[in-house]
Design a protein that fits this description.
single chain; 443 residues; alpha/beta; TIM Barrel; 2 domains; 8-stranded mixed beta sheet; 15 helices; globular
């Protein structure tokens, strides 16, 4: 080893002599056996895998007898099994009785939150350290992936700053398993409108970033983008009205400026909005999706349809909160808030508004993401095929993810296999047998 170090310290021209190259090679080969083993790359994995399920759902329709070829991290062929050949040296993976589908896309999650019946939201924001929240979020990311959701739109850290950016980096670097993330970082709220709130004379950390006026809004949007935000989330209304009623927060001009500033940096904007006026302002400002939309009216949904704004209804979150408050589902009458949700959903569907699939996971348990799809079918009358399209090709289109959401050559090899036929039985999504992300099998 000292001889090798002496060699490396010589002037460059001297080291470039052919004979000394041979000497250096000999010295390197003289390293101990364990050191050589550590330096050797692992055996390369099979670069081609042929998946042979009972059927393939390609993002739009079900195809019996199809096969899918994956090479490295991409899909390179999909079609009738007899027409898809396995390259030499590849591996065939038979999946009898299973349906292969694109990796599911979660449209509304909060990996830095956990169910409110475990710890109230205020206490999570105020009393839990960021280290604890991040550690818990790594477990949430893993559960999300293993549930078949290979992409998630994470819409705010709720007081955990830019922790979602680091979480995304850890996943991308292979340090922890998890879905591909689209992160909104801190989210934006009007001063005084959000929480937590204690005594009037006590300032406490807030669950999102406060910003107001031209200078404040532009600075906040640019700061979040500079720190790693893939999109901007804004609270167009919140429960700060008389007696805790939901009321609009930002003015029309402020919302429009948020969208313009984000768009100039290539980012879209999504809006938390439940009131008709909050929804109207957000839609006119040019947001891409309305989150929740609980009190939407036929007129507002017609405006959304005209402007091409999608609705992410998050029905599972409202259902979960109602149960946390004591509602016994299946026994008690629907609470007024859920009655209103049924009315607004019926109006949105009648207006032809595009629906994104997202449950506001974090309000309820991560890994239970299919709960939103089940409730859309069982409680709101959608078909299993409709919600499956929403969670794959539909979300990919709404979120501008051209490289995923369908099964066709050239797209990312993000694939999930479930027992049964999820186009007929939404409960089949609970029976995930295989999860592949980027050609790597995680389950």
């Amino acid at each position: 080893m000292p001889a090798l170090l002496s060699y490396l310290s010589m002037p460059t021209p001297w080291r470039q002599c052919q004979g000394l190259r041979a000497l250096a090679l000999g010295l390197l080969l003289g390293l101990s056996a364990p050191a050589r083993l550590l330096a050797q790359p692992a055996a390369p994995p099979a670069t081609a895998t042929l998946l042979r399920p009972a059927a393939v759902f390609d993002g739009q329709a079900l195809h019996a007898g199809w096969a899918v070829l994956v090479e490295n991290d991409k899909i390179t062929a999909a079609g009738p099994a007899a027409q898809v050949a396995l390259p030499a040296g590849g591996t065939a993976l038979d999946l009898p009785g299973l349906t292969l589908l694109p990796g599911l896309i979660e449209g509304h999650s909060h990996l830095l939150l956990h169910p409110y019946n475990e710890t109230p939201w205020n206490d999570q924001v105020l009393l839990e350290s960021q280290a604890l929240r991040v550690a818990r979020a790594t477990a949430h990311a893993r559960r999300t992936l293993l549930a078949g959701f290979t992409t998630a739109r994470d819409l705010g850290t709720e007081g955990a700053g830019y922790a979602d950016v680091g979480l995304k980096q850890a996943i991308n670097q292979g340090l922890i398993p998890g879905p591909r993330l689209l992160v909104a970082t801190r989210a934006l709220v009007a001063t005084g409108s959000y929480g937590p709130k204690l005594a009037a004379d006590v300032d406490v950390p807030q669950g999102a970033q406060e910003a107001d006026g031209v200078d404040g809004i532009v600075r906040a949007v640019r700061e979040q983008i500079g720190k790693g935000a893939d999109l901007i989330k804004v609270y167009a209304d919140y429960r700060w009205g008389p007696n805790g009623t939901a009321q609009p927060t930002f003015s029309q001009e402020e919302l429009t400026l948020i969208v313009q500033t984000a768009r100039s940096a290539g980012r879209g904007v999504v809006a938390h909005a439940t009131t008709p006026e909050g929804m109207r302002r957000a839609v006119l400002a040019g947001v891409e999706t309305i989150e929740h939309g609980d009190d939407g009216t036929p007129e507002i949904f017609q405006l959304m349809k005209k402007r091409g704004v999608a609705l992410c209804p998050t029905v599972a979150a409202g259902d979960a909160v109602a149960q946390y408050k004591g509602w016994h589902k299946g026994q008690d009458p629907l609470p007024p808030r859920l009655q209103q949700k049924h009315q607004s959903m019926a109006a949105a569907i009648k207006a032809g508004v595009t629906l994104a699939m997202g449950g506001d996971v974090g309000v309820f348990a991560h890994g239970d993401n299919a709960r939103e799809m089940e409730q859309l079918v069982h409680d709101y009358g959608l078909t299993p095929l409709q919600v499956l399209q929403q969670a794959t090709s539909g979300n990919a289109q709404i979120f501008r993810l051209a490289d995923r959401g369908s099964i066709r050559p050239g797209l990312l090899a993000d694939l999930v296999a479930v027992a049964g036929d999820p186009t007929q039985d939404v409960d089949a999504l609970r029976h995930v047998q295989l999860v592949m992300k980027g050609g790597v099998v995680y389950k």
